Amino acid sequence: MTLHDLATRALRTLDAETAHRLAVEGLALGLGPRTPNDRYANLRTRVAGLDLSNPIGLAAGFDKNAEAPAALLRAGFGFVEMGTVTPKPQPGNPKPRLFRLTEDHAVINRMGFNNEGLDAFVARLARRKGPGVVGANVGANKDSADRTGDYVTGMTRVWAHCSYVTANISSPNTPGLRGLQERGALEELLGRLNVARAPLTAAHGARPLFLKVAPDLDETAVRDIAELARAHALDALIVSNTTIARPQSLRSASKTETGGLSGRPLFEPSTHILAMFADALDGALPLIGAGGVESGATALAKIKAGASAVQFYSAMALEGPGLVARIARELSAMLKTEGFASVADAVGKDRR
User: Fold this and answer.
1) Predicted confidence (pLDDT) at residue 310 exceeds the cutoff of 70
2) CATH H superfamily, domain 3-351
3) Any idea where the domains of the chain sit in the sequence?
4) pTM surpassing 0.90?
5) Which of 96, 229, 290, 321 has its CA 20 to 30 Å from the CA of residue 55?
6) Cis omega before residue 166 (within 30°)?
7) Which residues does the annotation mark as catalytic?
8) Under a CB-based contact definition with an 8 Å cutoff, are residues 264 and 279 in contact?
């Protein structure tokens, strides 16, 4: 057992949010694992113009304040997404608000976009040195009178200091936020983001713009979002955020807590929605699969359903940052076993 495994086991004895906080602080101090993220040649890939050493990314939510992007890249991630950050600092929802569902390999959170705000976030990103793909996930303040404006502000502030920007309109923990996925509201949001990114591109160069969506969508919503994503030249969709559904199979004592469910129970529904988006878009833009990724097999299933890359967070919260190295090793081996020369060769294979 490694030192990092022992540290992860020790953190599990603490309440979930305290353990999370200590994990981020430890990584920021350089205490995390170190695994080359370019170890496997068959994992190198390109997504939305970004060259990735591997397709395994860290989802937003773990490092909300951009405290440890370099350490997370050193742990073996091919790309990492910081945030969600809002224009103004906000404390989030009352504690407790993060719950381990150990028996279900799952997490429920109702954090509510707790973060230090754009000033602290941008200052840290601006000081970052070294290579690596680091994305910024932006959101809206709970009390904002113009939530669409918050996304424009967030994108504008982070643009020069990140590799890509994600607009997170799918968290269930900010009241009314998911309403931005409705056709009229989404059309306004994407229109305003497009207007704002033209001068940013002229000043600082192009950045891919992603949209993160919920798994709790029907066929009409999937079709509408896919159509608007094409019309407004989005560069990728991240499918998906946490779910408000509660499968009957849940066994843990915290299963009735309010918030977004993630981890193993999210794998099947999020992969189903991913496949629906793959069908609706038919290759028009890449997809990033999130929800229940915890192994090489689950990562490959997302890729074969239509994802060009994957993200995870909950499994790392349960198993520690060393998990990314195992997923990369397993995914590389499985690609070879199934006869795929590269990640790109496997994308959407189950749709063909």
Assistant:
1) yes
2) Aldolase class I (3.20.20.70)
3) 3-351
4) yes
5) 229
6) no
7) 171
8) no
